[in-house]
Amino acid sequence: MSSTEGKVICCRAAVAWEAGKPLVIEEVEVAPPQANEVRVKILYTSLCHTDVYFWEAKGQNPLFPRIYGHEAGGIVESVGEGVTDLKAGDHVLPVFTGECKECDHCKSEESNMCDLLRINTDRGVMLSDGESRFSIKGKPIYHFVGTSTFSEYTVTHVGCLAKINPKAPLDKVCVLSCGISTGLGATLNVAKPKKGSTVAVFGLGAVGLAAAEGARMAGASRIIGVDLTSNRFEEAKKFGITEFVNPKDHKKPVQEVIAELTNGGVDRSIECTGNIQSIISAFESVHDGWGVAVLVGLPPKDAVFTTHPMNFLNERTLKGTFFGNYKPRTDIPSVVEKYMNKELELDKFITHQLPFSQINKAFDYMLKGEGIRCIITMEE
Ligand code: NAD
Ligand code: ZN
């Protein structure tokens, strides 16, 4: 039994008091985990676009004060009643979308969209009692997507934690909590390119580069990167991208450029921008007869997808994916193993590192589009 089990822990957390204002490192109280909950000591966290998007709170219901953060690695400090498959000392990755293992989705081999623990960006409290486990002098501070990893300790539902190999370096594998697994799974689990095939990746941010990494791992012979920012291209070569297309360099639609480059279209395309024009292009870039396009990027609220129905009759397939179709508890441990056996390369995604005290700098990097992932060390 740890010395803190069952007690309130006081620790540092980066609190967002207002939309778009720098986070403030505060002393917070973290309550013990209740039934089916786990308290985790976070060692490393990274920053993803979703944190920045909700912190800016331009398009959604603002919920403040709040502790953001959802890509992280940590160690279980204590568990609440009814938690049997985790114990103090286990190494875990928190995941923003959970796996209860009991609902129809969790029981289906085909879905990872758990009914109970599917991402909910509006909820800032725990499921069991509708309360927050974080407070400052008794005033509650809201949770974010069930993870709130910008805190030295956090409390999550047991279904939102993947138990991983304790030998895996948490400062590297923490990036598998969200974006990298999303892109990787979109390719490996959904697009499933065959060895020697041609793949196009639309959007070369963290998610798109992870999709390219998946294509490299699957043995694709050509991986065409499509992005509006040409300075992404050099970096993207490390991720297996063999050719680049910038739609701005061409008068005709990018799908026509790709058809010419590939004798009719790519075998697979993975859309990682969310731009509706790019979504249409990604679909229309796949070869008739067998081509499959997979949508990952999040489109704007009122976006409408249009294409001629003949594109489907000509045997092109369109699919979409959420978190790369990975079930967090069942599948993420084996993704960590792919890194451990050197099949999956993660170090190249990590372009910056900062101590927790400088977390706001990580927001600056992301807002400027600098680098891919910034690892924040909690103990510094
Ligand atoms: P990012 O902003 O880092 O990268 C997007 C890239 O797309 C940029 O390099 C940008 O230059 C490029 N781009 C934008 N519009 C383009 C266009 N019209 N044509 C070509 N390139 C274009 O974003 P990210 O973090 O890599 O995330 C990518 C997308 O994936 C986002 O929409 C995000 O919301 C979404 N996402 C989806 C899931 C899911 O489960 N489906 C999970 C995480 C993220
Ligand atoms: Zn479920």
Structure description:
The strands form three sheets. Strands 3, 4, 5, 8, 9, 16 and 17 form a seven-stranded mixed β-sheet that branches. The protein has a six-stranded parallel β-sheet with strand order 12-11-10-13-14-15, sandwiched between helices. The protein is α/β, with parallel strands linked by helices and 380 residues long. The chain is built from eleven helices and 17 strands. Helix content is 24%, strand content 23%. It binds nicotinamide-adenine-dinucleotide and zinc ion. Zinc ion binds next to helix 2.
Give the structure's gist in a few sentences.
With 380 residues, this protein is an alpha/beta fold. The chain contains eleven helices and 17 strands. The radius of gyration is 21 Å and the shape is globular.
Topology:
Layout: E1 9-15, E2 24-30, E3 37-46, H1 49-56, E4 71-79, E5 91-94, H2 104-107, E6 134-136, E7 139-141, E8 153-157, E9 161-163, H3 170-173, H4 179-191, E10 198-202, H5 206-217, E11 222-226, H6 232-236, E12 243-245, H7 254-261, E13 268-271, H8 276-284, E14 292-295, H9 310-313, E15 317-320, H10 328-340, E16 350-355, H11 359-368, E17 373-377
Parallel strand pairs: 10-11, 10-13, 11-12, 13-14, 14-15, 16-17
Antiparallel strand pairs: 1-2, 2-6, 3-4, 3-8, 3-17, 4-5, 5-9, 6-7
Bound molecules: nicotinamide-adenine-dinucleotide and zinc ion.
